[in-house]
Amino acid sequence: MVLKTGEEYIESLRKRGPLTIYMLGEKVENPVDHPIIRASINSVALTYDLAHNPEFSDLMTAKSVITGNTINRFCHLHKSTEDLQNKVKMLRVLGQASGTCFQRCVGMDSLNAVYLTTYEIDQQFQTDYNQRFIDYIKMAEAEDWVIDGCMTDPKGDRSKRPSEQQDPDVYVHVVERRNDGVVIRGAKAHQTGAINSHEHLIMPTLSMRNEDKDYAICCSVPADAKGITYYYGRQSCDLRRLDETEAGDVDCGNPLFGGQECLIVFDDVFVPNERIFMNGESEFCTRLVESFSAYHRQSYGGCKVGVGDVLVGAAASIAEYNGVEKASHIRDKITEMIHLNETLYSCGIACSAAGHKTPAGNYLVDLLLANVCKQNVTRFPYEISRLLQDIAGGLFVTCPSARELRNPETREIVEKYLVGAEGVDTLDRIKILRLIENLTLGRAAVGYLTESMHGAGSPQAQRIMINRLSDLEKKKKLAKNLAQVSD
Amino acid sequence: MVLKTGEEYIESLRKRGPLTIYMLGEKVENPVDHPIIRASINSVALTYDLAHNPEFSDLMTAKSVITGNTINRFCHLHKSTEDLQNKVKMLRVLGQASGTCFQRCVGMDSLNAVYLTTYEIDQQFQTDYNQRFIDYIKMAEAEDWVIDGCMTDPKGDRSKRPSEQQDPDVYVHVVERRNDGVVIRGAKAHQTGAINSHEHLIMPTLSMRNEDKDYAICCSVPADAKGITYYYGRQSCDLRRLDETEAGDVDCGNPLFGGQECLIVFDDVFVPNERIFMNGESEFCTRLVESFSAYHRQSYGGCKVGVGDVLVGAAASIAEYNGVEKASHIRDKITEMIHLNETLYSCGIACSAAGHKTPAGNYLVDLLLANVCKQNVTRFPYEISRLLQDIAGGLFVTCPSARELRNPETREIVEKYLVGAEGVDTLDRIKILRLIENLTLGRAAVGYLTESMHGAGSPQAQRIMINRLSDLEKKKKLAKNLAQVSD
Amino acid sequence: MVLKTGEEYIESLRKRGPLTIYMLGEKVENPVDHPIIRASINSVALTYDLAHNPEFSDLMTAKSVITGNTINRFCHLHKSTEDLQNKVKMLRVLGQASGTCFQRCVGMDSLNAVYLTTYEIDQQFQTDYNQRFIDYIKMAEAEDWVIDGCMTDPKGDRSKRPSEQQDPDVYVHVVERRNDGVVIRGAKAHQTGAINSHEHLIMPTLSMRNEDKDYAICCSVPADAKGITYYYGRQSCDLRRLDETEAGDVDCGNPLFGGQECLIVFDDVFVPNERIFMNGESEFCTRLVESFSAYHRQSYGGCKVGVGDVLVGAAASIAEYNGVEKASHIRDKITEMIHLNETLYSCGIACSAAGHKTPAGNYLVDLLLANVCKQNVTRFPYEISRLLQDIAGGLFVTCPSARELRNPETREIVEKYLVGAEGVDTLDRIKILRLIENLTLGRAAVGYLTESMHGAGSPQAQRIMINRLSDLEKKKKLAKNLAQVSD
Amino acid sequence: MVLKTGEEYIESLRKRGPLTIYMLGEKVENPVDHPIIRASINSVALTYDLAHNPEFSDLMTAKSVITGNTINRFCHLHKSTEDLQNKVKMLRVLGQASGTCFQRCVGMDSLNAVYLTTYEIDQQFQTDYNQRFIDYIKMAEAEDWVIDGCMTDPKGDRSKRPSEQQDPDVYVHVVERRNDGVVIRGAKAHQTGAINSHEHLIMPTLSMRNEDKDYAICCSVPADAKGITYYYGRQSCDLRRLDETEAGDVDCGNPLFGGQECLIVFDDVFVPNERIFMNGESEFCTRLVESFSAYHRQSYGGCKVGVGDVLVGAAASIAEYNGVEKASHIRDKITEMIHLNETLYSCGIACSAAGHKTPAGNYLVDLLLANVCKQNVTRFPYEISRLLQDIAGGLFVTCPSARELRNPETREIVEKYLVGAEGVDTLDRIKILRLIENLTLGRAAVGYLTESMHGAGSPQAQRIMINRLSDLEKKKKLAKNLAQVSD
Q1: Chain mean pLDDT for chain B
Q2: Chains in contact with chain C (at least 3 beta-carbon pairs closer than 8 A)
Q3: Does the interface predicted TM-score (ipTM) exceed 0.90?
Q4: Is C303 an active-site residue?
Q5: Which residue of D has its CA nearest to C473?
């Protein structure tokens, strides 16, 4: 059976060889059971469990274009604009169910981008990368892998190209070429779900020139490959997760689910030939980067909308708990949250509906509209979050810890004074307030805000693309025609 | 041949019986040749001419679902979500080509809304409105009609229902019922392209109750029906159109194209039974109003985007003429204009792609997303227009008239001092500046700004729908699940 | 008596020698009685009449620091931060009373800027410009002059300095030096109230270098000097002013008051020595431009706020006339209009309160805050205007002309159907709608929107100053201190 | 000597009787040395130390209007509009120096509000509250007290008045009246700096009616009074403060300074007559609340601007460290941050400069402009924070902990890969990134964002005041005059 359950996925993580992971100054021996890491694993596991849930299985699965098997959509090559739209809908459902980043879309987006790029390289250079990659996809489908799409290099001095850096390793590159493969060195930063993955699908991070050929490397290595070290990124309110009590759960806001970002260091890692999908064809880095970015910018029009639904729901819940749900300004602010959130969704759907078939046969989103989508994602979640803070009232940043509610000395007094509308349980009110803290300042804010800003490329990257893709010359012609400028 | 040319369309207007039209205190005897009206007719004529243009004929035409004939898309019942998207694309093309409102979409949107509503009325009441309406559509297709979708009543005192008004006539209603038809009285305000239409398809303007049955009337009358009077709305800079010289053309900004808004008064107009499509079934007013509004709110995600392209083009042109096209802040502002404009387009496409088949068989847009689309249209064009004014520099409001450039006494001096970047013709620069005036303050601003605000319903109308359609209860459940509130 | 009345001011305009004025292709022989020009003269006349109005005379007048006489504040050298604040308050009152640009502040701002700059030039070069200028101010005070602060050159190719232009005349410059004075040539564009002034106080438009010395000229010439030609700028809806009937007044929106912008060409105009206040001291152009700009950017925190009050009042009036003044979303939008308007006022007051004494002895606003003030003025009026259009409903762009209300054939029907809330006169409703058109699209929109954008420097000019004046190094130090970066 | 040093202040806290404090489920026995609390005490201590710093002593001190002594400005009754402006400047300096909330302004604002209100009560009721309060102020000055202005009740069901609540204690009220004083019960929520204060100056939280007389109580009790319990509010990233190592300091972002919010419960606390300043005069609750709110809304135009300066500095620092400080989009975003921040400052200065003398003799800010100031503070800091996150890049949420930089196993690798522009120390870069996390998501974000939203009243509270104070009738008259509506 191809479709793993969440439980089977977690088991598969345990079966990997040992990983070298550093977090908070120490080596983590058992990542799967570490409370901080486990919350992020739970989010990924949802992508497996919902595939078995009849309500969502249509969205969560697809028929493989390679084998015809029913597979998890995260392993799927999109074969229509409807597929592209279904991807967005699936991500929205997962954002709704996890309230955070579930980490698996980078892999899906890199699968599709590498697929179309290898085909185009082969067309020009008579290489056989695409067939290799099809074989790779077969394994991914069969094993129901989580793939870490591994793109962003640390970059060092940003005013210099890879080959000009003082330390060449700040971009991943080939340091040795053998008959049976290559050895790579370097690091990838901001790697979402790195430790929760089975494979790292490594891609170059920007357009490369001839002199950067060693950096034009696309390949895959298993998460437990020799030479890899993980440095766990710490995030807002991370330590609350260490309090594994019920009170700790309350103060976490979202006790079950979290995200994960790591720095991955590749210290002379060997890659066998069959896992190499680009090797020096620097002409195609731009195509790979731009198509991957477009897919991933589309993704944000789904996943962040799902989390946005949680913010809207939190706003409506706390308004009710505070007894102000009928105030016209509250209703209007909630309407604005919905409006902004659905605008993002519209952008996700539109770049999908306007997608097109690539020469390789899979479908790619409309590049301009995908960039427009992401650009809005760098703005509206911040305003949605601000509106939620407005509606919440200030208690979510001044509320005593839930331990005060467990302590018999203090419980009654705290419950007495933090009471809300009649009939509302004070603890429920506090739980929603802590969820709001989590979403707007805490662990989930990292994903909902900062990741919305910088994930899939920072705002300026989209602006450059929007400008380039907009056909200004044609628009000038329109204006001049109407003004009767001969020109 | 079903597809008229623009020229044939204009001829068909001349063939109508005489219309009673008042403008600027006088009766207009020959509307087709009146310079103010003619500019608006030119815009409508584009919808005919482009159907014959091979570059656009795919978008501009469709196969009738009734007869199988190739017809103008403006007469079409949408038969797929692709049709809905093509409608948006067609409107964008026309906005680009006219730089203003081309007035014909209200008819297309009312055709589709009345079609689906009559079907649903028939299902409930065993009436035969739908068949009557199909016959009507056949004529519309065969004659390639411009239909004025006629919805907005003057409304009088807005705190009262139709049947409570001091003067019952401020809403169109039935004043006499005969065997062969009904007599109606009242008025419709803000009627886009009223005089340029062949038919007025009259619809109720809001939800009606039992006691408002006389107001629950949907029917059609020809533009030259006995008892109709037109009051031409005057608009910003309208008088410039009266200067029919070359200099006048320059100062018009957009010499060829304009829009049109009228107050239509129905003074006891007879409607035969075969043109009545709802008659007292007040339960279905909401369905008719909401589906029409949704179609029309979608429209704005096309037509205003096309005009937005003209604003972008005007910005890029004037930047070039001023010699500042490479300044980073200019480039960034143009990028922002494009970004906002493409966001509107994304909303137009998304509500189309998310459309669904109605019981009657035609396709309806997603109601929530169509409202989201229009809500954005009440905002972004204002910002796009502001950015264009920023980029333009102040000359578009301080420039001497073009007559100074025709007057040999003054021409050389004005040309000398209004010179721009080297090699740019001063007159061309002025033409673009006047186009910018036209788009942001003048005749086209009425369509691009105020109509974007109030056309297809004012902003608050969309907010009410967005709130109602958003399933807040489900969203509250999502938040409570994550916070582990039992509830 | 120093303080003229409005009537005396108008008489003083008639007493000037003949001016050469071109408008709409013709020479204007009698500007004072030309209906388009007269509306702009009426606005200036308010600055005289209100000085005699006991309610406003405290604000409108001041004690001269030179003679001790009571003078119109527009001729005043500010002698305290209270004076600077009173200037802002005076401008707000005039904006409220005229609903448009009253044109006289440019002169006040140039008086203060030239005063402090001439003093500083004298300190460095032992010239006697300041004494000359004091003599000039005495005349300005005694004659209660309107001075046109004359700064903006047409600029030609903006990528080149004045001395590099193909045509040297696109910047005003000295073409002949005589014992008794200089001869200047060139033009000034966008000259607010040019024809309504007694004097043109000419200033360089930007920082100059050594090689631009001929362009570093500051001097004054009378409005009727030999060699001056005026080209009247045409503006949105200008032709409505030509309809001098009561119906024309209604359709003008603001029948009495308007603005004025001209291109002034100086064709070898002689300037006697006593009217020269800078002559080649290019080092001081920056000081003159920056101080003038700061004063003038402050001004916008007063005059536009006054016009903003009219927009707020129009919003509240039309809401009442439409019968929706109690709707919560209407109230909220009006609150937002007020909030934005008062934010602008706060900026006008703050840069005044933070002002300081110059070496010359008069007071200068805080440069940073004055630029911040103007930057907001390039944004908020557009949003205030958008909100007014929202509240107004669409009738202000679809309403028949007022002539239909004078025509006995049509009057009753138009009144019947354009009726508003009970008890409201339909004509009153239309008058307010036309005022709204005037303020947001028509003649006053030029002043309230476009002039807010470009007057006193375009937005980017303020951004450059804001960046330069903000002491980033100190702010970096603050952050590093807190983060305990040694640095 | 009246002016304490920071050290003396901390000593004075130790000298208080024991406080009952709960935090994280436990009693805190020694708050002064608790690492979480200590950071907030350090911020308050700055308000003492800077008074001794010659650079700031002019701002930080004032001459008492009561005794003529030089006192800390936080104990001062403002005696001029200059004083009001100096308050704003002082708060800006402290925001710059602490990067967080320094907690002492609530006391200053309540001193001034209670002073003017007691005077007005006395005038009407021949009471002697004002003299009592002057005696109280003398002590505050002499002891250089931190006073906790204690206003916000928990409020329970917000749709009900105090006397209608199920539990009357959700508003502080008098439960017993004795000859020598009263006994009060209830709680105050969101109490900034509660534990760091010497006194709680209790005020009613809203307008009261006759039936709410027991709630119309204004009085003061010492922080260590019998019957008071403190519940420490937990906040984003609070646990990082518990890591008292150098690495912990780095990860705190702002190792020295923090804020503090508590729930204070008054369980039958006795107040002697001489500390009662209102007792049942419900007519004056509105005056007290509105004047306190206005003072406190003004405060935000100072303190948040100072913190905003730190955000600007952090942006400029990280841009430099990343090597992108010259990119035009980076410069433009920093300019926007400055612009927004200085707009807030302008609002703080303007409501001060427009202040007026009260009947009691101290100065009160302009109520309308103070509300406008705070309304902007509920918006711009969010946008400033968003821009900082944009400029920062994503590393501030993915960076490994500083312990990895202390661990010899990992240090070199982390330093190698997190390198920035040449010459920049990697640890310095990380310190600034952690400061950015602190300011936009962590502990300081609570103060800079959420407190900006809800402190001194939530946004809707200001909108109600802005609407009420704006004299709409006068503005309607302006519009009608211009439109020549007789009315």
Answers
A1: 97
A2: A, B, D
A3: yes
A4: yes
A5: D313
